[in-house]
Input
Amino acid sequence: MKRNHEVDSESQKVNQFPLKVKLNLEPKVQKPDAEQSPECSEVASNNRSGSNNLVVNNPYSSELEENVGGFYNARRGFNIKGYIGKKPIGRGTQSLVWLVKKDEDYGAIKFSKSTTFLIKVALDEVQILKKLNAKSKNGHPNIVKLLEHGFLSADNALYCFMILELLGPFLFFALHHSQTEMHMENKKKICRQVLSALSYVHRNSVIHCDVKPENIMLVISKEDARCQANNEKIDTATFQIDLTDPFFDVQVKLGDFGSARSRENDRYFKELQTCLYRAPETFLTTKIDTPVDIWSFGRMAYQLVFKHRLFSCNMDNNEHNLKHLNMMSSVLGPIPLAPFRENLRPEYVNFFDDSGNFIDLGCVPARQNFLEMAAMHKLNVADALELDDFLRSLLKYEPSHRSTAEQALSHAFLKTNNVRASQIKPNTQRATSQ
Output
C-alpha cells in the first residue's frame, strides 16, 4: 500500500504534474541507534581500526542545509518509503542528496530540482539505472544500485526522488580534500573497476556522458555507514579505507547517470560532458558515441595518477572552447579535421587551416608531456612508459581509434606490480581529523 506522499513513477506521467498529496514534514523523534558505539564519536574517530583511515573534508558543507529555491526543503527525520532522513550529504546544480536509514539498512535519497525539465532528466536516469541493474540479479559490482524511486509533492511543487545504495566519498574528495596519498596499486585497481563499469554500460548501449572523479564513489562498510548516520557533522567524515595500503581491497562505483544517453535513441545534442573531461568531438561535432566516455576516463586516469587536471577550463571566458582545444594540441599534437568533418559544428569551420589542422591561436604555454609528468612524480620507468602508452591509447583524436573499455582493461599499465610488503615505504603522513 502506498503512503499518502508517494507516487510510483510507472503510474505517474510527467504531464500529470498537477498532483495534490500531503507530506508529513514534521521530524520524528528518533531513539539512539541500539548499535551506536563510542568509536563513532568525534573524539575517537581516528582511533578506529586501521592506522591510515581516510579523512575527507567537504568544502561545500556550509551550503548543504541552506534552503535554496527549486530544491526540496528536506528536514532531518523525514520519512519517505520508510527511509528516515539523517543528514544532507551532497548538492549539485540539479539535485539534493540526503543520507537515510531504513531499519538496519542505509541509503542515499536524491531529490531532483522541481522543474519539468529536471524531473524528466531524473526519470530518464531512473530508466537507465533500472535497465543496468536488471541485467543481473545483484547489478554490476561497480555501478550504483537503485533501490526505490517515486514522486513527492510539497510546497506546491513536485519532486522526483531516487533512493540509492549509500556509498562513501567521491573519488575527487579522496584525491583533493584529504591528506591521504594513494598508493599506485590502488590507483590501478580504481582504473580497472571504472573500466569494468564502462564496458558493462557500453555493452548495454548506454553512454554515460559524465565520467569524472566527482561521479566515482568509494564503497564503504556497514560500520562506516552507521558511523556517518550517527555523526551529525557534515563538514568532515572518517572512513575505514586505507588507500596507502596496496593490499587494501578498495572498491569504487560509477554513479550519477543524469547525463547518460541511450545509443539507439539520442546521440545528437548540444554539448554534454563536464568541460574538464569533454572529448574533442563533443566540442566540435553534433554527434557522439561511447568513445566520449573513454576520453573522459583517460583524463580522469591522468588526474588520478598525478593529482592534477590534464587541461583547465575557464567557463567565464567566451573563448574557453578554443583555448581548451589548443591545450589538447599542445600535449597531444595538432587536431585533424578529418575525424570531425562530417558532423562539424558550423562555428568551427574557419578554425582549421589549409592542411586540415586546428589553428594554433598561440594562447597556450608549453606543457609537460606524460613522460615528463611521470618523471616529476618519480614513477618508476616501467610504470612511466606503460602509463604514457595507456593514456595515449585513450586520448586519440579519432574516436574509433581509441581503446574500448574492454581493450583498455588488458593494458600492461593496469597489471599489478606484485608489490611485497617489504618493498613498501611506510606512509609518514597520517590523516588527522579536521
The first strand starts at residue 54 and ends at 57. The chain has two domains: 9-19+39-165, 171-423. The CA atoms of residues 212 and 300 lie 6 Å apart.
